[in-house]
Design goal:
This is DUF4167 domain-containing protein. The chain is mainly α. It contains four helices and no strands.
Length: 84
């Protein structure tokens, strides 16, 4: 009977917080997880373009496009354009 112990497997369903959850997130992170890019908006634009070129050279067209979109965002921020 499924309702004999409604809290029996509650530990499996509750969200995990703390270092164990962080380790699991890092270990299960996709290969394309981005590291934080620091600097001004112009510097971020240049850094994302460089990442795009690296991804293109490695043959990852999806990653290259993602990086170009980030670069475009920082270009708009640097030039005061907020419209998409």
């Amino acid at each position: 009977m499924p309702f004999d112990n409604p809290a029996g497997d509650r530990a499996h369903r509750q969200p995990r917080f703390g270092k164990a959850a962080q380790r699991q997130a890092v270990q299960g992170a996709p290969a394309r997880a981005h590291q934080k890019v620091n600097g001004s908006a112009q510097q971020k634009h240049v850094q994302w373009l460089a990442r795009s070129a690296d991804a293109e050279r490695s043959g990852d067209s999806v990653e290259a496009e993602t990086c170009r979109q980030h670069a475009e965002h920082w270009f708009r921020v640097a030039h005061g354009r907020n419209d998409p």
